[in-house]
Amino acid sequence: MIELIAQNMAPIMFASLILFLLFGYPVAFALAANGLLFFVIGVWLTPYSGGAIHLDWNLLGTMPDRLWGVLSNETLLAIPFFTFMGILLEKSGMAEDLLDTIGQLFGPVRGGLAYAVVIVGALLAATTGVVAASVIAMGLISLPIMLRYGYDRRLASGVIAASGTLAQIIPPSLVLIVMADQLGRSVGDMYKGALIPGLVLTGIYLLYIFVMSIVRPSAVPALPPEARTLGSGVVSLLVLVVLGGAIFYGAHHYLSPIHGNNADILGAAAAVAAMYVIAMADKEGWRFLVKVGVGLCAALIGWALLQAVNSTDLVRTSAMNVRTGVLIAAVFGAAILAFLIYSAVMRILSNVIDFTWHVDQGFGITSRLAQQVVIVLVPPLALVFFVLGTIFLGWATPTEGGAMGAVGALVLSAMKGRLTTEVMKSALASTTRLASFVMFILVGARVFSLTFYGVEGHHWVEHLLTSLPGGQYGFLIVVSILVFFLAFFLDFFELAFIIVPLLAPAAESLGIDLIWFGVILGVNMQTSFMHPPFGFALFYLRSVAPREAYQDRVTGQMVDGIRSSQIYWGAVPFVFIQILMIAVVIAFPQLVMHYKGPVVDVSDMEITIPMGGGDDGLGGFGSLGGLGGSPFGSDAAPGGADAGNSGDAASPGGGLGDLGGPPDFGGPAPDESADTTAGDGSAEAPAADGGMDPLGGPPPGLSAPAN
């Protein structure tokens, strides 16, 4: 009986963890408690296991190094940065401005408010990455307006909850950061892979609203004329968009030979900037153009001085500054020229169309609606470029992008006059709570993974999953079903830290691309925020939705509250949409695999290897294997040495994920009695399975366990 228990410690340990979680113990403490408990049991049962258990008291001495690996993981710094950014943007009123403006834009059509909620949800997802901030903001702002004008309560609740969860899959999503870390892959690659599926999912949400506007038009009425405070003005907005498209085409055509695929992002940035300059110049007049000119000149002078200070070749630096100054002057001149062309076009159109929506401020060329749409949309789009554009262009790691996003959120909040002491306290407190929550789970998972690998749990899970029928697709379907049901009880952080590291080795052994696998799991985990009765997005919406009838402050009429059952039933259609999206991502991996870029023909490449001698060293980065590999042999966590080549933000040393990576402790200590030199004085070659460089030795605490 004891032998049977010893040889099946892995499933017993996993079942015990599930039992702890079902009893409601905090995840971090459940992981750590199970790890320590079964470590003690495993050491006692080692003689009866027949070689199935590899635990020794000396292994606990490696725990400080493992925990330090978690705390020093720079990739996870992106989580507090993006959390801080999201909370600041929520407090700055950006969501309110976006919902009001886009609601006015789509208000005249049936389902216009629902369209606005989905679009704003996608924009908030791309700027904040925080589900709670998105759902609460849209629930407070949009839900009363949708109820005021007769929207179906189930549909309104479902649209708000589903749109808020887009922050789970559209970069810079927090779950994608954790997923990349656990899989040992680049966060930048994970962002690129998830971008198109996130946009496709947004499009399916919009398509569902469109279908509902045809099937049940009474459920999604248009805004009445008296509610359209910005009036009309779509013509001038369309002209502005066409002009922006022309600027994008010209910039893309000019930049493509120099920047290649990155010209898409740079061209879009130029077009958005030009549209913003036009809208602000039309609203404020020439004084805005003067401000822009002064700002550009100051930036150019500062940049030139910085280059001169950092360069020893003053002649070359001066020439570069002159060329850069000419380029900036040309861009600024092009923006003014575009504004003059736009002014001429609108003046000509004003002779044909009655421009009753002209404003009296500034030049008075564009409508108030066009001005408001551009002025409100550009700041979050600019923030998206600074965060995602710099990551996609390779200018910054996700951690650096998150830091820039946090600074950008501070600037936007200050510009709106809402950067108060209370806002800073709230943002810092929420960020600290979330970061501490993540760190505690990671520490507990490190303890659990040490024991789980010691009882060969990774082999048990891999054998269980790779023996499923259907190959890759059978594996993906079973895993999707498993994660879908586990999401009833666990949120995405817990799923990512417990389940993903167990699934990743099996996925990699089946030849599944781990970025594709991560995006599939990300879309699946998105449902953990939505499906009743435990979806956190539903709880967030319930906390701000009116429970009882109340008097509307605009119409003065009594409006019924929303029951919890209406919120739950409203989420059901969107859960089915997300299941459909999982199937689409599985069936069409090209939606994700574009992150790899074009295939390079190695037959056309010429590689030159310098033949000069070099210094003997201790190996390059990652030669120590990192803290992510198995401590009991060569069963490395996914990512390993490969992961460092997949992007600039891969987890160090093959991923510092919890269960995905105990460290490599190297081979057994050499026999002291053995000769270390050959007879001719030359060093003997290390064994094939030798482990670390003999000159450096293993780091402190990572020596092989004593026999």
UniProtKB/TrEMBL annotation:
<keyword id="KW-0997">Cell inner membrane</keyword>
<dbReference type="GO" id="GO:0022857">
    <property type="term" value="F:transmembrane transporter activity"/>
</dbReference>
<feature type="domain" description="TRAP C4-dicarboxylate transport system permease DctM subunit">
    <location>
        <begin position="323"/>
        <end position="591"/>
    </location>
</feature>
<feature type="compositionally biased region" description="Pro residues">
    <location>
        <begin position="696"/>
        <end position="707"/>
    </location>
</feature>
<feature type="transmembrane region" description="Helical">
    <location>
        <begin position="227"/>
        <end position="251"/>
    </location>
</feature>
<feature type="transmembrane region" description="Helical">
    <location>
        <begin position="373"/>
        <end position="395"/>
    </location>
</feature>
<feature type="transmembrane region" description="Helical">
    <location>
        <begin position="113"/>
        <end position="143"/>
    </location>
</feature>
<feature type="domain" description="TRAP C4-dicarboxylate transport system permease DctM subunit">
    <location>
        <begin position="14"/>
        <end position="286"/>
    </location>
</feature>
<feature type="transmembrane region" description="Helical">
    <location>
        <begin position="514"/>
        <end position="541"/>
    </location>
</feature>
<feature type="transmembrane region" description="Helical">
    <location>
        <begin position="567"/>
        <end position="588"/>
    </location>
</feature>
<feature type="transmembrane region" description="Helical">
    <location>
        <begin position="473"/>
        <end position="502"/>
    </location>
</feature>
<feature type="compositionally biased region" description="Low complexity">
    <location>
        <begin position="632"/>
        <end position="651"/>
    </location>
</feature>
<keyword id="KW-0812">Transmembrane</keyword>
<feature type="transmembrane region" description="Helical">
    <location>
        <begin position="288"/>
        <end position="306"/>
    </location>
</feature>
<feature type="transmembrane region" description="Helical">
    <location>
        <begin position="326"/>
        <end position="345"/>
    </location>
</feature>
<keyword id="KW-0472">Membrane</keyword>
<feature type="transmembrane region" description="Helical">
    <location>
        <begin position="194"/>
        <end position="215"/>
    </location>
</feature>
<feature type="compositionally biased region" description="Gly residues">
    <location>
        <begin position="652"/>
        <end position="664"/>
    </location>
</feature>
<keyword id="KW-1133">Transmembrane helix</keyword>
<feature type="transmembrane region" description="Helical">
    <location>
        <begin position="12"/>
        <end position="31"/>
    </location>
</feature>
<feature type="transmembrane region" description="Helical">
    <location>
        <begin position="67"/>
        <end position="89"/>
    </location>
</feature>
<protein>
    <submittedName>
        <fullName>TRAP transporter large permease subunit</fullName>
    </submittedName>
</protein>
<feature type="transmembrane region" description="Helical">
    <location>
        <begin position="263"/>
        <end position="281"/>
    </location>
</feature>
<dbReference type="GO" id="GO:0005886">
    <property type="term" value="C:plasma membrane"/>
</dbReference>
<feature type="transmembrane region" description="Helical">
    <location>
        <begin position="401"/>
        <end position="419"/>
    </location>
</feature>
<feature type="transmembrane region" description="Helical">
    <location>
        <begin position="431"/>
        <end position="453"/>
    </location>
</feature>
<dbReference type="InterPro" id="IPR010656">
    <property type="entry name" value="DctM"/>
</dbReference>
<dbReference type="InterPro" id="IPR004681">
    <property type="entry name" value="TRAP_DctM"/>
</dbReference>
<comment type="function">
    <text>Part of the tripartite ATP-independent periplasmic (TRAP) transport system.</text>
</comment>
<keyword id="KW-0813">Transport</keyword>
<keyword id="KW-1003">Cell membrane</keyword>
<feature type="transmembrane region" description="Helical">
    <location>
        <begin position="155"/>
        <end position="179"/>
    </location>
</feature>
<dbReference type="Pfam" id="PF06808">
    <property type="entry name" value="DctM"/>
</dbReference>
<feature type="region of interest" description="Disordered">
    <location>
        <begin position="632"/>
        <end position="707"/>
    </location>
</feature>
<feature type="transmembrane region" description="Helical">
    <location>
        <begin position="37"/>
        <end position="55"/>
    </location>
</feature>
